[in-house]
Design brief:
Strand order of the largest sheet: 2-1-3-4-5
Distance between the termini: 23 Å
CATH topology of the largest domain: Rossmann fold
Number of helices: 9
CATH class of the largest domain: Alpha Beta
CATH architecture of the largest domain: 3-Layer(aba) Sandwich
Structural class: alpha/beta
Order of helices and strands: EHEHEHEHEHHHHH
CATH superfamily of the largest domain: Response regulator
């Protein structure tokens, strides 16, 4: 389980001086850091179940930072990525954010700004993992619903009344109410409030 693994700031930069300095800064703030001199070495050792974030240099020999970012995106790895570069330009920044970068910082960096980005990225990762876990727990329950029951549930979550849902789906109000009742039973909740909470948080 990822909960048993330390939250880690993964740092990838081919410049040993920069890498050591950033590692010292992050560790002095109480963060666990794992540093790599190349994108290839990072990929060879990276465990996506470990929570945290990635601080990634752009220009490196071999595999560049943006190329590594694209590989992680292709692998559907959602770790927040903070791009750092000493050669930033607008097209590079746009490309990074279009590929889902959490942040983009130019060297030399303000230390506090970097720390703020890292802490926010770690919190984003925690929220994403919590949401994924909730969705995983909820999936077996949702599989119990028929297609019509799922439509009713989805509309209930938006705040629509039985009358509005029945009209939108082209069914009678009594039929709509039956779908609602069966959905509550299958999802193991007592009422609409618990249903909405379950759908939004994964917990009744």
């Amino acid at each position: 389980m990822s909960d048993d693994k330390p939250t880690t700031v993964f740092l990838v930069d081919d410049d040993a001086g920069v890498r050591d300095g950033l590692q010292w800064l992050l560790e002095s703030a109480g963060l666990h850091v794992q540093a790599y001199p190349s994108a290839v070495e990072f990929l060879e050792n990276f465990d996506p179940t470990r929570p945290g974030c990635l601080v990634l240099d752009v220009r490196m020999p071999g595999l560049s930072g943006l190329e590594l970012q694209q590989i992680l995106t292709t692998r559907q790895c959602g770790i927040p990525i903070i791009i750092i570069t000493g050669h930033g330009d607008v097209p590079m920044c746009v490309r990074a954010f279009e590929s889902g970068a959490f942040g983009f910082l130019e060297k030399p960096m303000d230390r506090q700004r970097l720390l703020d980005h890292v802490l926010r990225a770690i919190e984003r990762d925690r929220q994403n993992r919590e949401q994924e876990a909730q969705q995983t727990d909820l999936a077996p329950l949702l599989e119990r619903l028929t297609a019509r029951e799922r439509e009713v549930v989805d509309l209930l979550v938006t705040g629509k009344t039985m009358k509005q849902i029945a009209a939108q789906l082209g069914i009678s109000i009594p039929t709509c109410s039956k779908h609602r009742s069966r959905s509550l039973d299958k999802l193991e909740v007592e009422n609409d409030v618990e249903l909405v909470r379950l759908m939004l948080t994964g917990r009744p």
